[in-house]
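A quick word before the example. In earlier lectures we treated sequence and structure as two separate objects. From today on, think of them as two lines of the same record. Here is Gliding motility protein GldM written that way.
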Amino acid sequence: MASGKQTPRQKMINLMYLVFIAMMALNMSKEVLSAFGLMNEKFEAANTTATANNKNLFAALAAKADENPAQYKIPYDKAKEIKAVSDKFYTELEATKTLILDSNGIVPENGKLPYETMDKGAGLDETWFSGDGYSEKGQAFINAIEAYKAGMRKAIGDDKKLATVLQEVDSKFDISDVKDGEGITKKYLDYHYKGFPSIASLTKISAMENDVRKIEQDAFSAFMGNTAAAAASMTNYQAIVIMDKSAFFAGEPVTGRVVLGRYDESTVPTSVVVNGNKVKIDKGEAIFKFAAGNVGDHKIGGQFTFMEDGKAINIPINGNYVVVPKPNSANISADKMNTVYRGVQNPMTISFAGVSNDKVTASAPGLSKSGNGYVWDVTTIQGNQATVNVTAVLPDGTKVTDQKTFNVRGIPAPVAKVRGSVNSAKGSKADLANSPVQVAFPDFVYDVNTKVTGFELFVPGQPAIVVNGDRMTDQAKKAIATAQKGDKITINNVKTTLDGAPGYRMPGSSPFIWEVN
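And the structure line, produced from the sequence above:
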């Protein structure tokens, strides 16, 4: 258009074209600058939201650490390190944004940056670069990035579950040299910032701030999630057998459940109460100890208390156990000697293994309760055998019965007793005449109280004399007086009545021989 000889009109037209093209380029540049500005606004708004969200996440982790230190203290300590590293670098990025504006003489207008005029970046170039390398301030910015990366590595450590967070740190903040489109290797700041409009550099720093907050959020979320995942890991679960009761009888079906229960040392409750008493926690277990109590079924109750989101969460404890009698003696019996006696109160111990006494009842003619046991009066029972029937109510409410048959015998015949001797004795006629006649039961297991009601007296050379009562009558004394030294006087058929059972007929005694000396 500018070559050759042109008319003034043609030159004017060409000039108009040039002006038009320049105006189009100028308008496009303003649109791009405005686009960068709008993008920067979006980054800054997102950064404000991310900062607030991270603050809430950090506070939640701190609360968890306070409620359950065993599970959350270590993640919280790491989170504190990450927060300190992130906040420090974020502050340095904010200072860099201020540097970009100040170095290029950019002043906000009515609180808003003049994006369309932020097409120059010479101020930042002069601040960060010196010759072909970095200036002191440029190197300081690179050092700040490196310090941030090193701080994050130290805080995260060798936690493999946060490896992706470290990968993101290395990827987002890679400050290696870069090859441009023409294959020329340039330093990180040279490639990304040198010669760029100030609005573009400002937006890149805002994007870098967003990366810091995003990585911080990922770390906090990972700490919360990994801790919960570790606690919920199947390696912390055990199969727990829960029996419907802790003791079963032979022939009874065994019933219960098998559940999965978490068992780990990091889940520490605020308190554990069992049967009204606080118990201690040792390696994830609540250790309790209390007296077994009486024979029978007993309940175990209480609760675990955890703190969650500042509130006490109670988990009830419900269980039971059965107390059975402690075996402190053998059950030994002679099968043919299960005998009870007429005329006496036969003491009986009746129980049912594994069942408390209040759940046991026994019945038989003449059987009655006496203290913690029973007494059995079989005086009126006809025949030579009698049976005791026992019913017990088991802990599950079912009833079981049993019975035992005993031999019924009368009280054995007594032996006559005079002056402390049984069967026979030597003495004077006077001693015999003035002594009462008694009976004894030397081989009987019961103490029997009797009253002598009469006996027969035989003196050599005299007729037999029947005596009523337990003492010698005048007739008996006269007969005894006729005895000679060496004579043997016989007391026979001593008759007695039984105290407490006047209707019971006692057998006669064996004879007693008194030798006169």
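Notice the following. The CA atoms of residues 178 and 186 lie 5 Å apart. We will return to this example when we discuss secondary structure assignment.
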